[in-house]
Amino acid sequence: MRFSRCHGSHLRLLSHLTSRRTMSQFASVLIPGRGEIKVPTGLFINNEFVRSVDSQEVIDAINPFTEEKICSVVAASAKDIDVAVAAARTAFKTTWGKNVTGFERSRLMNRLADLIEQNAQELAELESLNNGKPVKIARDFDIGDSVQVGWADKIAGESLEVDNKTKFAFTRHEPVGVCGKVAPALAVGCTIVMKPSELTPLTALKLSELAKEAGFPPGVLNTVPSLGSVGGAALAAHPDVDKVAFTGSTVTGRKIMEAAAKSNLKKVSLELGGKSPHLVFESCDMDQAANWAALGICYNSGQDCTAGSRVYVQDSIHDKFVELLVSKVKELVFGDGLDEKSSGGPVVNQTQYDKIWNYIESGKQEGAKAVLGGNKRPGKGFFVDPTIFTDIRPHMKIVKEEIFGPVLSVGRFKTEEEAIQLANDTTYGLGAGLHSNDANQCMRVASALEAGTINQYNLLSNNVPFGGKKQSVRRELGSYALQEFKAVHWNFGEKLAWPL
Amino acid sequence: MPGTFIHKFDTPVYKGTVNVSTGLFINNKFVDGSDTTTIEYVNSTGKLITTISEATAKDVDIAVKAAQEAYDTTWGLNTSGAERGDLLNKLATIMDAARDELAALEAMDNGKTFNWAKNVDVDFAIQVVKYYAGWADKIHGQTLETDEKKLTYTRHEPIGVVVSHILLASRWIMLISCQGTNNSIYDVCLEDCSCSCNGQYRRSEGDFHPLSIKSDIHTVVQPSEFTPLTALRMCSMIQEAGIPPGVVNVVTGYGNTVGAAISSHMDILKIAFTGSTIVGRKIMEAAARSNLKPVTLELGGKNPNIIFNDADLDNAVEWTSFGIYWNHGAACCAGSRIFVQSGIYDKFLEKFTEKSKAIRIGDPFGENIDEGPMSSEAQFNRIMGYIESGKTDGATVHTGGNRRGSEGYFIEPTIFTNVKADMKIVKEEIFGPVSVVVKFEDEDDVVRQANDTFYGLAAGVFSQDIDRAIRTAHRIQAGTVWVNCYNHFKPQVPFGGYRQSGIGRELGSYTAVKAVHINLGQRLS
Questions:
Q1: Which sign does the torsion angle of CA A73, A74, A77, A82 carry?
Q2: How far is B43 from chain A (nearest CA, A)?
């Protein structure tokens, strides 16, 4: 439930009474071990949870562990998006944007961060219920990672020496306007219309409740759960949205960029897919490399754009490493997310489940060898047990395409040159991992790994986890300088205890 | 074998011979296009000057391969910043020695006067190359404190094969493709950048650099006029400077063939484009459908220039004239909506009219000429169409409003008054020496009017009251605001548009960078 990744939507202010014919705007959700909690189910617009202005559509939130419905939330229509955008625009012009100081934005964001922290357990449980992710992962990794507060009062431009006798120039970093992404946008003064994933809308709505409690003025943050083809499309094509930030599939990213080009040329930032490699060299600390590689593919059941889904191991240690890796992965329990013993849960829904199993079948058919997993589990829940393929070939679908599940391809290389060539042989370029204790080799390989993407390139060197601290090198707000860069995380001491 | 264009200039302002190879420039060699077809090169007076080799999609592939190979071997991460800086400095020196020649080609091309081409465009282009030569060995990342067991740093690496319409410095590979989309050209270059100053160099060269030539043309009505000669002349300078083969490649061709091939190419990793909003949209769409290459777009403008009662009147008149008449208004940043406060309105209009009438129109190579012909018949017709629409819509032609003479595409500097917000001449980019002057009463109202446009490229504010000037500068939705000056570019200062004036300077951030220039004393006469 990474807050900064949620995409939102909003609700229209209607009284609870008027909604009695359809649904209440709050639902009681039973969390085993905790009891019932109240979850908002309306669109969050102007700090109120409301019904759709013209639609009866709902989105069912499904528990992937039981395959049962948790509750339904209002699905925003294109008209609702208009209402939310108008609310955001008004707030931008009156109570937010250039009308508040960075200190005030920072104060509110700190309050929100505190509220999130206070409610971390409950939010994590709700997230787990809705997407299957273990509570401890949601709480300890994701929620701790949520809000960018410190930037709000550190927005600085530059003054530029031009001619000391006659001219002076300076730059000002101004908020863009109405945006589609949360934390960094709020920090600089943009207002938000957030469309959360249609699969997991509950935590976004719960967070909206906390935003209101924190004291954000109405209209600053609006959350509108909606189908991508409705709400997402409406936002991307909206003439009064100034920027859309999207995290998700490359296919959808393309559509958003096209819609932006055809409408008002809104600014677009896309964080799309990945098929990120880990390179394991013979000089590495094998135990640690295996831990990080296991984390790289098992984290969030592989449903992460930076998942380390290709591991290339130097010939001399290949067999031993694979054996170690398999034993590490076997130690993890994939079960009920609400159970503290679980390190992994089911994947998010039936569609994703089917897609992953198709990839696993294709891997077998194309001749890869499943050294772990590869068999379906009986019973309820969209479970995919971690699957490791060896004996892979570059043309195989499991090696080329993003699977978004706990399916790992392990290949081998002889030389550093071959390792770099294999790692770079992809259309993606999001992340990479490098495990070696040879400092010169680390520097050489880090430099040679290519990104070639619109995303920032997280290079996780020498035993560094994917998804670990990558938010700490977020593209810098205060500098227009940084268009593309490679971020290198160099771990020289942090040990990963296993299992999680 | 590609041909050579040789022309002997014997004019009052420039005498000399230019010699330009008219091939495509790939791997530091001038070559024929794959189909050996040519494009007729017609200049701003409508005369056929020469023929130029025509590139097709095949040639784009060849050029991209050359650029990629150079990137992998002799450029990219294989040269030091110091070497790249040296080469760019050499290029600047060579350009410096050829100022007159470049200016003559540019003036012949697009109709701007030789003197302005030489003293503004070419001069600025040289400044920019020198400025970026200085950046080449100053590419820095950051180290980021996370915790004591971990080291995190950023590296600013070249992107790879990049296309832009302008010459860039630092570590770049350029595929400059001159595309004649009718009367437009946008050159495209492959840069490999990621230097911390992308926005800055990119902006600056838009309309100024001899490589980019008049980059902004909107519609595309007739397919033959374009202006690649200065770009091709630059290629021989690039050879001479010793920049390795493949680093800069120029493919001249039409937008619907070469432009489309570039926009949708799978191995081009970035495109920077300056031109019309319509073409900008197409490029972004093609990028979305192909390899999601990032785009930087510098598009149109309908820029407000605001003069308050407390402005220094003479200073405001001078800069305002420069703001609209520089390059006969054919500039995306042209200050074409002039808002004047009521207390100073009559006096301002009188002096501004005098200035406009004093503009000397004629042969770009004549002595003491301020304005040459429009760049093509299409452009001429388009501008005259706007002037007619202003008349039909009921605006007052305060001065000008006519063609000058019967030969050549000359248009009188034209001022409209008594305009309404919904008139085409107030809303649309004209790209010619045509402005509207609007009277206003108070600050809030003028800010509202100034922002009533879907563009957001540039703006001017004239006031001696520091509070008012800065307040207004901050409230205008535009990427550049000039205070007490206009069209006053510097290589150090970023440029780019808000709203539908473009995307760039800083893709991926939630802030938009506004550059504010404050004139502290430079007089313009």
A1: negative
A2: 33
Q: Per mean pLDDT, which of A474-488, B69-83, B175-189 is the most reliable?
A: B69-83
Calculate what percentage of chain A has a pLDDT beyond 70.
Answer: 82
- pLDDT band of B449, cuts 50, 70, 90: very high
**Chain A to chain B Cβ contacts (< 8 Å):** 222
Contact check, Cβ <8 Å, B146/A476? no
* Angle, CA B326 vertex, CA B325 and CA B329 arms, to 5°: 60
Residue A23 burial (10 A CB sphere; 0-12, 13-18, 19+):
middle
Q: Does the annotation count B106 as an active-site position?
A: no
CA distance B81 to chain A (A): 16
B263 Cα to chain A: minimum distance (Å): 13
Sheet holding B150-155, edge to edge: A369-372, A387-390, A407-413, A310-314, A277-280, A431-435, A457-461, A486-491, B150-155, B143-144
Residue type, B402: N
> How is chain A split into domains, by residue range?
8-271, 277-488
CB < 8 Å from A in window 54-113 of B: 77
Tokens standing for residue A96: 């937010």
Comparing alpha-carbon positions, the chain A residue that sits nearest to B150 is A491
Positive/negative CA dihedral, A159, A160, A161, A165 = negative
CATH of A8-271, one of 3.40.605.10, 3.40.50.800, 3.90.850.10, 3.40.1170.60: 3.40.605.10
Strand locations in A301-379, DSSP E? 310-314, 369-372
| Residue range B485-520, pLDDT digits in tens | 998 887 777 777 888 887 765 322 334 455 555 556
Chain A neighbors of B141, CB-CB under 8 A = 485
pLDDT at B515: 54
Return mean pLDDT, chain A: 81
Question: In chain A, which residue's Cα lies nearest the Cα of B490?
Answer: A162
Task: Given the residues B54, B191, B298, B318, select the one marked as catalytic.
Answer: B298
A494 CB neighbours in chain B (<8 A) are 147, 149-150
Alpha carbon of A156: minimum distance to chain B alpha carbons (Å): 10
Residue B287 is nearest to which of A257, A269, A488, comparing CB atoms? Answer: A257
Distant-in-sequence, close-in-space partners of A251: CB < 8 Å, separation ≥ 6: none
pLDDT at A487: 54
Chain A neighbors of B453, CB-CB under 8 A? none
Distances (CA, A) of B415 to B29, B304, B352: 48, 14, 9
* Phi, psi values for residue A412, rounded to 5°: -135, 160
pLDDT confidence of B146, banded at 50, 70, 90? low
Helix (H) or strand (E) holding B519: strand B511-519
**Structure confidence by residue, pLDDT tens digits, A375-392:** 999 989 999 999 999 999
Please say whether the dihedral angle defined by the alpha carbons of residues B447, B452, B453 and B455, taken in this order, is positive or negative: positive
Relative to beta strand B150-155, strand A486-491 is antiparallel
Residues 466-525 of B with CB under 8 A from A: 474, 485, 488, 490, 492-494, 499-500, 502-503, 505-522
Asked if the Cβ–Cβ distance from B156 to A485 is below 8 Å, we say yes
Q: Which CATH number fits domain A277-488: 3.40.50.300, 3.40.309.10, 2.50.20.20, 1.10.530.10?
A: 3.40.309.10
Cβ partners under 8 Å of residue A418, min gap 6:
none
B257 in A contact zone (CB under 8 Å): no
Q: Half-sphere exposure of A226 toward its Cβ, with a 13 Å CA cutoff?
A: 32
Q: Which amino acid is at B400?
A: G
Residue-level pLDDT at A142: 67
Partners of A298 in the beta sheet?
A: none
B48 phi/psi in degrees, rounded to 5: -75, 120
Q: Say what the pLDDT of residue A302 is.
A: 87
